[in-house]
């Protein structure tokens, strides 16, 4: 997935000085932005009030969109470095291509996980013959310094572990939840899960007190720690919990995102996560010159050009305004 903003704002993030050690309820506002030719997304992270949740540094929620007579998602080849991308669908399909030569259709409740490491390029598109509805989330995970220069890789996991109890059914996307661990590769203490609650369900989900968490409502109106959330809402929960009370009056689903607060200071610009202005500028130069990131073969269109850098140096700072 890509940030297609032609004038992307630099986003300094990371560091623990602004992480609350206690439980909170902080509803983050979404910003509507275009993704490709015909898809609008609700960008929930980074936001004006919060830039990271654990190592999660970017969250887009889209749909449900009726794309029966439209091309659906069409995101041309673009670069990434210093992060992992997570593709997660509730409805529809996304065809992934990358500069490693990967070609994979990702379907609902399957994990598409791309580790960019030092450099990779990819494209995402709805297949020519596709389902009527498209609904999902696209997310980034920041890589720690020790792993951000590693070789890139692509993973697809169709069979993911699940957690049951009190009526809930949770699919573990990344990390570990209540003893169930995802096969997806991680580089920091992190968790991502898709939690379904049938109408009338009431449950308490075990969580880690040292992790910070947020809940992204995918459908229905789940009640998370006493807060009722409309679809597309992202509720930041802070740290300090050992369990998370959940209930639902209607069939509902939400994504639980969490992790140990990310200590390193980062700068995020366009589709790059780095540590300095010079590093970001070099990545942009390499993409423009056609070096380092490789070539995505098979996409019917041209690759995305890099936007112009802002006129002031990019500086890594804290994680919340």
UniProtKB/TrEMBL annotation:
Q: What is this protein called?
A: Pirin family protein
Keyword entries, A-Z: Iron, Metal-binding
Q: Does the keyword Iron apply?
A: yes
Family designation: Belongs to the pirin family.
Q: Which GO terms describe its molecular function?
A: metal ion binding
Q: Which top-level group of life is the source organism from? A: Bacteria
Pirin C-terminal domain location is 193-292
* Keyword Iron in record: yes
Q: Which PANTHER family match?
A: PIRIN, PIRIN-RELATED
Q: Where is the signal peptide?
A: none
- Cofactor(s) recorded in Swiss-Prot or TrEMBL: Fe cation
Origin organism is Streptomyces mobaraensis
**Cofactor, free-text remark:** Binds 1 Fe cation per subunit.
Could you say which residues bind Fe cation here? 78, 80, 122, 124
Q: Which residues form the Pirin N-terminal domain?
A: 42-141
